[in-house]
């Protein structure tokens, strides 16, 4: 590693979001930082990648780049466009997201997907999200903690061949501390609202009006932030579920091709 590590920063709220700028400033205290983030907001894009349209790239300032694509597009372009980065990043930091990414949110989150894309490419990664109002004071406080967590991740020993991917959520207000956690369970209101446009054709708004709730679950990220703690949850890249090999074997044995 160089004397100062190189950190790639991205997000899903867009390159002008206050969270990504706060994170960039805090990380610069100990690292070289390059921001490659979506030109426009790309929330809830999950791991979408643009394979069927060209992408445009704008240089907005020293080490700040905008790509008119998804968070995953941004990380991919940063890593594989020649000369965009001065060298291979030592770490990818994504966020600070406007709003939580707790429990099943990690499936939909573009912020988490940016970190996951870097981890898929062998780069230790960490995603950050902020509950509550994103005031300047709240973001600066969370960004300071984020910088400390990034330094710790760079120093951490890790098993051979296993790239760490962490999901961090900051509580609303001042944090009481930091807890290692597991994913909680979030329940969203479900439904499809049907409306008609002026020409009589139906269009839909998905998601019910009842908001989101979660049940208490010991050791979870949801419980941690409810109690005023920063949650640090390890995610896994390997998606095979060994407990269901029996189901797979039963299905596979049903009929010969």
Primary descriptors:
257 residues; alpha/beta; Stationary-phase Survival Protein Sure Homolog, Chain: A; nine-stranded mixed beta sheet; two-stranded antiparallel sheet; 7 helices; 13 strands; globular
Structure notes:
This protein has 257 residues and is an alpha/beta fold. The protein has a single domain (6-185, 215-252), classed as Stationary-phase Survival Protein Sure Homolog, Chain: A. 27% of the residues lie in helices and 26% in strands. The strands form 3 sheets. A 9-stranded mixed beta sheet has the order 3-4-2-1-5-6-7-13-8, sandwiched between helices. It has a two-stranded antiparallel ribbon with strand order 9-12. Strands 10-11 form a two-stranded antiparallel sheet. β6 (125-130), α5 (136-155) and β7 form a beta-alpha-beta unit. The longest helix is centred in the middle third of the chain and has 20 residues, at 136-155. The termini are far apart. 38% of the residues are buried. The mean pLDDT is 93.
| CATH top level assignment | Alpha Beta
The largest beta-sheet arranges its strands as 3-4-2-1-5-6-7-13-8
Number of domains: 1
Coarse structural class: alpha/beta
The topology string of helices and strands comes to EHEEEHEHHEHEEEEEEHEH
- CATH topology grouping: Stationary-phase Survival Protein Sure Homolog, Chain: A
Inertia-based shape: globular
Give the oligomer, counting copies of the same chain as homo and different chains as hetero: single chain
Give the beta-strand count: 13
Strand share of the residues?
A: 25-35%
- How helical, in percent, are the residues? 25-40%
End-to-end Cα distance, whole Å, is: 51 Å
| The CATH H-level homologous superfamily | Survival protein SurE-like phosphatase/nucleotidase
Low-pLDDT windows of residues = none
* CATH architecture identity: 3-Layer(aba) Sandwich
Mean pLDDT: 93
Biggest sheet layout:
9 strands, mixed
**Radius of gyration from the alpha-carbon trace, in angstroms:** 20 Å
The number of helical segments is 7
């Amino acid at each position: 590693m160089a004397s100062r590590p190189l950190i790639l920063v991205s997000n899903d709220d867009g390159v002008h979001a206050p969270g990504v700028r706060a994170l960039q400033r805090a990380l610069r205290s100990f690292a070289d930082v390059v921001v490659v983030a979506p030109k426009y907001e790309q929330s809830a894009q999950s791991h979408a990648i643009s394979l069927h349209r060209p992408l445009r790239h704008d240089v907005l300032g020293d080490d700040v780049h905008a790509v008119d694509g998804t968070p995953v597009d941004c990380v991919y372009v940063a890593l594989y466009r020649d000369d965009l980065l001065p060298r291979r990043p030592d770490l990818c930091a994504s966020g600070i997201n406007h709003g939580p990414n707790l429990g099943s949110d990690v499936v939909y989150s573009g912020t988490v997907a940016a970190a996951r894309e870097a981890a898929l490419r062998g780069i230790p990664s960490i995603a950050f999200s902020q509950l509550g109002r994103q005031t300047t004071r709240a973001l600066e406080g969370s960004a300071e903690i984020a910088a400390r967590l990034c330094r710790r991740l760079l120093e951490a020993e890790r098993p051979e061949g296993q790239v760490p991917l962490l999901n961090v959520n900051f509580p609303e207000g001042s944090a009481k501390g930091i807890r290692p956690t597991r994913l909680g369970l979030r329940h969203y209101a479900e439904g499809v609202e049907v409306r008609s446009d002026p020409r009589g054709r139906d269009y839909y708004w998905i998601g019910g009006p009842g908001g989101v709730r979660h049940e208490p679950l010991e050791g979870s990220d949801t419980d941690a932030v409810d109690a005023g703690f920063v949650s640090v949850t390890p995610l896994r890249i390997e998606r095979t579920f060994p407990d269901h090999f029996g189901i797979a074997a039963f299905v596979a044995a049903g009929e010969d091709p």
